[in-house]
Design a protein that fits this description.
The protein is mainly alpha-helical and 196 residues long. The chain has helices at 2-14, 18-31, 37-50, 54-63, 74-86, 96-116, 124-128, 138-162, 173-187, 192-195.
Length: 196
């Protein structure tokens, strides 16, 4: 797992929002009860590699007062998943309602997927390209995707109520979970003509 540790640490150095990816992985590990010593050591190694930058990061955060980042509003809340999926950042301004519809569709789709797909739905090939020693069945894979999709968004929006930090591109990694949820759903369809 040296590659995982190094790439995650580099991700932290590149964008501190990587913390939300790690938190999603921790929550997922707690949900499937697979917190192991090896996993904890991985997280500690990542923290150790990132720790020299923490004082600078805290200093920058404490010194920032007024920001170019807009506070969240009702458009942001209702359209966030659609905006992340399409890359929409508010221009042209008449697409907010469409982003809200896409967001609702993604949220309903994501939650219904967990209830529709049985534990062995036939998506093992897709799933095994991910964390094979942690993800035991297809529902656990969907739990991973749901944590990856919703936890960062909820945490960033909650923090943004007090201090605006939400910027679309900072959460672009969430769109990967959206894509994988769609792939998972399509690959679980047994009828090949419908799947096409």
């Amino acid at each position: 797992r040296l590659g995982y540790i190094i790439s995650t640490a580099l991700g932290f150095w590149t964008q501190p929002f990587m913390i939300f990816v790690i938190l999603s992985q921790i929550v997922f590990s707690v949900l499937i009860k697979s917190i192991t010593r090896k996993l904890l050591l991985n997280f500690l190694a990542i923290f150790f590699l990132f720790s020299p930058w923490i004082p600078t990061l805290l200093s920058q955060f404490s010194r920032s007062s007024s920001s170019w980042i807009w506070p969240i509003n009702m458009f942001t809340l209702t359209a966030i998943l659609g905006s992340l999926f399409t890359g929409y950042e508010g221009t042209p301004g008449n697409l907010w309602n469409l982003m809200g519809i896409i967001s609702l569709a993604i949220a309903l789709f994501a939650f219904s997927l967990f209830h529709v797909i049985p534990a062995k739905a036939g998506i093992q090939t897709l799933r095994k390209t991910w964390i094979p020693d942690q993800v035991g069945d297809d529902r656990e894979f969907i739990k991973l995707l749901l944590c990856w999709l919703f936890l960062p968004v909820i945490l960033v929006l909650t923090i943004s109520v007090f201090k605006p930090i939400y910027v679309n591109r900072y959460l672009i990694f969430v769109s990967v979970a959206e894509v994988f949820l769609i792939i998972t759903a399509i690959s679980s369809i047994k009828n090949s003509s419908i799947r096409l």
